[in-house]
Amino acid sequence: MADSRLRMSQIVGKGYNEFWKFKGRYRAVKGSRASKKSKTSALWYMANLSKEKYRQANLLVIRKTYRTLKDSCFTELKWAINRLGLQNQWVAKESPLEIVNVETGQKIFFRGLDDPLKVTSITVDVGVLCWLWIEEAYEIMQESDFDTIDESIRGEVPEGLFKQITLTFNPWNEHHWIKKRFFDAPPDPDILAITTNYLCNEWLDEADKKVFERMKKQNPRRYRVAGLGDWGIVDGLVYENWHEQIFSLKQIQEQHPDLKSGFGLDYGFTNDPSAAFIGFVDLETHTIYVWDEMYEKGLSNKKIYDTLCKMGYGKDRFTAESAEPKSNAELKSYGMRVKGAEKGKDSVNNGIQWIQDCTIIIHPRCVNFLTEISNYTWEKDKFGNKRNVPIDDFNHLMDAMRYGLEQYIRNNKWLY
User: Fold this and answer.
1) pTM of the full structure
2) C-beta atoms surrounding 287 within 10 Å
3) pLDDT at position 219, please?
4) How many CA atoms lie within 13 A of 67 on its CB side?
5) Where do the domains of the chain lie, and which CATH numbers do they carry?
6) 20 to 30 A from 66, CA-CA: which of 19, 98, 292, 364?
7) Residue 168 belongs to what H/E stretch?
């Protein structure tokens, strides 16, 4: 038993002792990047689901949109299976996403809030559904949506089991309902709310640590959140003229017969994501509809093209960041219709002003757009006064939106 505990501590590492032992209803873990919160959660679930005493337990894993699960939680849990040497016990399936214990019949289910009926209608063949993991819980902006999820973990459990919901997330915005509900709550034996950061991750190499040291010097605001796991203080939003709403293309096309499209592309690679804005605009009512997004790091130009084709946008016209003419030329060579954005004096602020005069309606699946627009603020000087310059952060889809809408901004006598 002692050897078993020693081996587990070597696999999991430090910083999560309280998290590992807690059996109350809610575990809320806010953390910086590289804080091990997702990997530790995956290890906890695979280690405990495999224990003899918990062989009646089943797990539901949720993110706001289903399509984001495969490359996040599903991959993390497969990694945990391999790290714990449980490959003969658990089998991962992709259609639909699920992980099954071949010995006991236990299951790990994956659901997105974009299909709420599937979240509330899960039935298990073996045991009970008693554990739930919400990854990137920050994406769930309405507390009522969480209440619906919370209610799905109900009913009696066999002796020795317990019901528990784990939320893991990056703390971008101090105004998020999670802060008030869990972190500002009075002491409660059913709530564990903890903050972790990269300093407890003993497996980071020197190159990883240098990323954070550089961030600390160059972008202290981001370091406090993405480095230390503190709450993001959001003051002076660039855009406040938006709301989240489910809609269909057929619906908005019927409402706006003269609907125009606007597709924009912002390049990134190692530290920043490549971001594509897929949107529509009704010029008469000044309404922008944010329909879809691409948001991913490490994409080559060929992969950008392949991804957009897979999403169904390979034949559409994109306006892209003009600072990378080679990337635009390469995408053209693959058959993509893309041109660089035309920039003029004050083009960023002029574009922002044009968008500020519109109503922005965002489809709930555009989780990265929602994150950026709710954190995209004006810079402040050393005295705390707002400058007429947006921060160089949370701006990849914000820039892509301006690129995509360039033709309409320019027609309004503003050179973009």
Assistant:
1) 0.89
2) 17
3) 84
4) 12
5) 2-201 (3.40.50.300), 242-411 (3.30.420.280)
6) 19
7) strand 164-169
